[in-house]
Batch of 3 targets.
Target 1
Amino acid sequence: MAAPAVLLSCVMIAAVNLGGCATAIPLPSFAGISKADITGSIRATSPLSDRLDGEDWRRAKGALAVALDPQGNGALVAWENPQSKVKGSFVPVGQAWAKDDMICRTFLADLGGSHPQRQLQGNACRDKGGEWRVGKVEPWKKAI
């Protein structure tokens, strides 16, 4: 019977000693960081290309919404960012369809300007809030 009492005493002593343990690690102040110390930035990426910045994608997304609108005329819709010199266009392919309470549509995209020329195919669905969410996008495979 003495062994359990000794074990209990050891556990209680360890708990009391470790219960108040804390370690302080001094951290440097961020107040002294200058713009010269910044080595990179976070870029907003698009589902079309990781080379599109936030403004490129904002402009492209607006053109995509117009192109994919089921009430639209199905014509090509172009966009351009004069600051980055990136431009592109979207054209809807086929009719819109319903999926999980959303309207979906397939599209072809062209990217160019200062961006490497790319032709893509993909699909997007408009959610209940009216926002088009781009799904799968891949290089365009021309039919032979």
Target 2
Amino acid sequence: MPIIACRRCGKALQYEQIKDLPYFPFCSKRCKLVDLGKWFNEEHRMPGEKPAEEDEANDGAPPHRE
């Protein structure tokens, strides 16, 4: 049986099929909601370019491109 760790608390999760884990890749609804809250509070972010309005608000200069 495969074993993975909960993405939030690290608890070991053993399963035969992914559908056996209702909150995959988390161990519980609580861990899933804590992680979602971090996305809402912008503690987790996807890498990428800043939106244009953020660049203009910082200094009014166009974004630096290499």
Target 3
Amino acid sequence: MTDSSFDELERRQSFRLDMEKELVDILWTDEQGQERTKKIACLDFARGGLKLDCDIALPTQTEVIINFKSANANNQKLHGKVLRCIKQDNGWYEIVLTLD
């Protein structure tokens, strides 16, 4: 692979941190206006967003609050929006969030 072909494949503009499927809590409002929460695996974290692994689909543009280490007093909350939601061969969804 040449350097130019690598640049074409790599779309990220910032450093990425492999989260090794660390569990995070997400909070969003569904299409019926109900507030929902779910504990899901975070696959990657970068300055611009996150990639999550989830057993349900979230519509694009859905506003999401991500809570890291929710049981810890020093937890961290971030706000984002669903950029992509892609169904995988295993039936789960790869969800990509952009951070606000």
